[in-house]
């Protein structure tokens, strides 16, 4: 499998130079997003040696070393070095604790290992905050968390050998100039492939090598199966609710109003009974929750309405496979139709899900705005996303940018128009993400969908 270029590697290199041994880093993310692969690549390319301790498959001998030598680091390092046949070099070796949530005692030890100062430490894990994975341990303050998700669109372009096109897209966004038509078409074609393939590394690698949607679909179904097994294994008493929510996501996103309604899972459901299930799915990084912010002011988190939210899947490729989960395989013509823009499936949900995925990859929390008023149509509106961006007309102070996502070439913008009339003073630039060319004029900028990751 080809090594995929990931942005996380650059973040780790920057962390190494900045932290200089004074903290460990914890890479959090869903299973199969490439955490371990990236940590190993970091160790291989940036240190004289690295050593990987996999707590998901921990041999009893290594377990005993951790249990018995936690107060004697000289012996601990000597034994690990001998067991893994790897020489450790002071200040030039990396020790990776893989799937550290499986052995919380090792995570607690990080505090003392960092203080010891001989080596650098990267931990990887999923379900890091689930109660039983933090029970009885003191979380080390020397631990910097970094979230890692599936590949974003730019990383997908790199994987597909389109580094130069990815650079050109960035330059065009910065200059607010449209790409030449031929490159716009190529970028849109890549974006459509990304919608179908998604960003799970194993799926992308297979697609890059064989360009076979059927094989990619097969791998995605395997990953969904793995997630289903994890739910059964780790969600304890909430497994049924977690499964119910996860199965409902495609149906919820295909509605005109994409908000998640619990009644679809269980007609007598109460939100507080489902709180733990949503927390589990969010902590496992299987979903991205987008919350309704009732006031478009810069501290969006202060105005979130917890009862009103949209629930996206963390990977759009998995959403495609999940949509057809009731069949053994996803029909080939479905993939072909999406690729050639002839689809009957609600493509809006895939496009909006993919945009949410780009924003999360950029470290943004997700917010939307929704208000309905029976008496006053001028106050009824739905804005797909709200983000905070520096605004050039306000001395680069942060302002709210409303974003509408359009999957078709013809569309209206009545919600954006109303939103500007009502809240103009709080807003910066507004964006429409659509399948057409870039158009910039005044406060509204229309961007092609393949520039979502630039925002």
UniProtKB/TrEMBL annotation:
Keyword terms, alphabetized: ATP-binding, Nucleotide-binding
InterPro entries according to UniProt: AAA_14, DUF4143, P-loop_NTPase
Keyword Transmembrane helix: no
GO molecular function, one term: ATP binding
Keyword Disulfide bond (UniProt): no
UniProt domain DUF4143: residue ranges: 229-407
AAA domain residues: 24-157
Protein name (Swiss-Prot/TrEMBL): ATP-binding protein
Organism: Bifidobacterium jacchi
């Amino acid at each position: 499998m080809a090594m995929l270029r990931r942005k996380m590697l650059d973040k780790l290199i920057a962390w190494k130079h900045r932290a200089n041994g004074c903290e460990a880093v914890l890479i959090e993310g869903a299973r199969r997003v490439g955490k371990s692969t990236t940590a190993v690549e970091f160790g291989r390319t940036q240190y004289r040696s690295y050593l990987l301790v996999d707590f998901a498959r921990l041999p009893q001998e290594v377990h005993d070393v951790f249990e018995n030598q936690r107060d004697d680091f000289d012996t601990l390092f000597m034994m690990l070095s001998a067991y893994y046949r790897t020489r450790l070099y002071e200040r030039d070796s990396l020790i990776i604790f893989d799937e550290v949530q499986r052995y919380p005692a090792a995570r607690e030890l990080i505090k003392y290992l960092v203080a010891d100062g001989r080596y650098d430490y990267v931990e990887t894990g999923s379900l890091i905050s689930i109660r039983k994975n933090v029970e009885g341990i003191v979380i080390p303050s020397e631990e910097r968390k970094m979230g890692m998700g599936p590949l974003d669109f730019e990383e997908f372009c790199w994987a597909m050998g389109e580094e130069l096109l990815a650079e050109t897209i960035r330059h065009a966004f910065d200059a607010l100039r449209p790409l030449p038509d031929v490159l716009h078409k190529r970028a849109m074609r890549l974006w459509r492939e990304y919608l179908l393939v998604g960003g799970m590394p194993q799926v992308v690698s297979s697609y890059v090598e064989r360009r076979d949607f059927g094989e990619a679909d097969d791998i995605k179904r395997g990953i969904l199966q793995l997630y289903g097994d994890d739910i059964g294994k780790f969600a304890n008493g909430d497994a049924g609710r977690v499964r119910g929510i996860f199965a409902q996501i495609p149906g919820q996103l295909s509605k005109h109003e994409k908000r998640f309604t619990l009644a679809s899972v269980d007609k007598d459901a109460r939100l507080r009974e489902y709180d733990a299930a949503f927390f589990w799915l969010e902590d496992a990084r299987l979903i991205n929750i987008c919350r309704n912010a009732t006031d478009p002011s810069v501290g969006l988190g202060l105005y979130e309405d917890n009862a009103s939210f949209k629930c996206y899947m963390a990977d759009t490729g998995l959403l495609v496979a999940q949509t057809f989960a009731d069949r053994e395989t996803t029909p080939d013509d479905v993939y072909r139709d999406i690729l050639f823009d002839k689809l009957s499936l609600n493509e809006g949900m895939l496009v909006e899900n993919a945009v949410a995925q780009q924003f999360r990859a950029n470290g943004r929390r997700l917010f939307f705005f929704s208000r309905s008023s029976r008496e006053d149509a001028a106050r009824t509106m739905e804005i797909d996303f709200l983000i905070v961006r520096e605004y050039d007309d306000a001395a680069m102070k942060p302002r709210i940018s409303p974003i509408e996502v359009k999957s078709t070439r013809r569309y209206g913008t009545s919600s954006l128009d109303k939103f500007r009339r009502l809240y103009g003073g709080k807003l910066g630039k507004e964006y429409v993400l659509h399948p057409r060319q870039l158009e910039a004029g005044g406060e509204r900028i229309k961007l092609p969908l393949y520039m979502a990751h630039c925002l």
